[in-house]
Design goal:
The protein has helices at 10-20, 24-38, 40-46, 66-76, and strands spanning 4-5, 8-9, 51-55, 58-63, 83-86. By secondary structure, it is α+β, with helices and mostly antiparallel strands. Strand 3 and strand 4 form a beta hairpin.
């Protein structure tokens, strides 16, 4: 569970901020984006240089192109609007000082 802040968990606090917008699309994309942030390391290890479609807080489709990933995600969740993320390779994340 997330660490506590002001008597609430960070997870609940971030969802509350998203819900203030009252826009269903903003709420959905905020939740998916937070999921990507928490699972980014795993995405980089499992899907380097791929396009990943995230829907319902899980990987819904993976492809070489956005169209491929989107098609797979729409098969799984036809009424959802997935978040598409281009995943870098681990070598792309290496910083040389």
């Amino acid at each position: 569970m997330a660490t506590r802040r002001n008597g609430r968990t960070k997870k609940r606090a971030s969802r509350k901020r998203a819900c203030r917008a009252k826009d269903p699309l903003t709420i959905a994309l905020t939740v998916e984006n937070e999921w990507v942030s928490r699972h980014y390391d795993r995405l980089v290890r499992q899907y380097p240089r791929k396009i990943v479609a995230i829907s319902h807080r899980q990987v819904a489709g993976v492809g070489e192109t956005g169209d491929e990933a989107l098609a797979l995600a729409r098969e799984k969740y036809p009424n959802a609007l997935p978040l598409l993320v281009r995943v870098p390779s681990p070598e792309d994340l290496v910083c040389v000082l």
